[in-house]
# Entry
Amino acid sequence: MSKIDPIHIIGGGMAGSEAAWQAANMGVPVILHEMRPTVKTFAHQTDGLAELVCSNSFRSDDDSQNAVGLLHWEMRAADGLIMAKGDKHALPAGGALAVDRDAFSQDVTETLLSHPLVTLERGEVAGLPPEEWDNVIVATGPLTSTALAEAVAARTGEGSLAFFDAIAPIVYADSVDMSKAWFQSRYDKGETEEERKAYLNCPMDRDQYEAFIDALLAADKTEFKDWEENTPYFDGCLPIEVMAARGRETLRFGPMKPVGLTNPHAPDVKAHAIVQLRRDNALGTLFNIVGFQTKMKYGAQKEVFRMIPGLEDAEFARLGGIHRNTFLNSPRLLDDRLRLQSDPRLRFAGQISGVEGYVESAAMGLLAGRMAAAARLGRDLPPPPPTTAMGALVTHITGGADAKTFQPMNVNFGLFPPVEGVRGGRRKRAERYKAYTDRAKADFGAWLAT
# Structure
């Protein structure tokens, strides 16, 4: 048997790790390039592969009524590494899938390093890869190095688009005042008692909420550099102070909504707003403040967040932060095999390709890894049908979206072609979503079998 040349994968995050796993399992050698710890980033804390930076949640795991839950199902069906390790290191989170971030990253790293066809090389790939690398996946994520981003922009003739991604703070559980806070998942979601009590809840009355909003708006914020001033935020990860500036009630209808929760300390008192904290590790010693991404300066964060009832004496394992996130104008630049049209030896996967979210990024890595490996083996692998979650995402970022207004996108049923014979409207939503997921599972299974 003739020797198979390796695929080079640049970036060891969610997408790069999944791509390496998929390609290696198809019998193709992989050289995985990760710049950490040689070159560090603002957001990363370790040199582990697939480190979770912004949150520890993979979001809903409902594969019959939720698009991201369906994406989970498809990745599991495709023997996805990210989902396998996510399931292994899952934490109670109601109807969501949250993971112990350190154990998860360590397991992904050890699994890839133990694979006989995967080689990990530490160090930055500065600029475009050399021409002799004829099969490359660029999975550098939202923190692509400046040298590589500039080289890609020069090759494509496109100015890269960018938005800011914000990180939520993490609190030590034993510093939360449990005489004010309580454990409960919204609407008591979850099949076990542990899942139904996966969140810590901190209630606010009207006066406390109004004072909190005032402090939030007045707090010292991170100042952006001149070239960052006109960079838009991604609406799915807005800093809380940006949401508050859009209207004083915005947070009450977002991350601080009080519905579906009953305070056992005062069961007859309806909270005006509620702050939720989600378990962040298997030991239950760390909790992240849900939806509280922020660009406040560190000192201001401590002052403002300690205004939350139950968090008056909170100690923080990590404060929030904000970083610039770079991505391609993929509808204009990529084909449906995720290849750069001006340089087809380069495939792009993960957030740099124009998807948003851990699972979506890993899913694009899964496809890129399979497509690159198939090409190395002399075959062409088309993307899954647009009726599937993965196919809907690929269709959107490689032509379904308007290139003039393109922004990163989470998977959602709005990206799927309608199901014939299923009526629209809110009353028929459950029926419609079930029709989407049933069709997707059948079509994805057929795609896997090809």
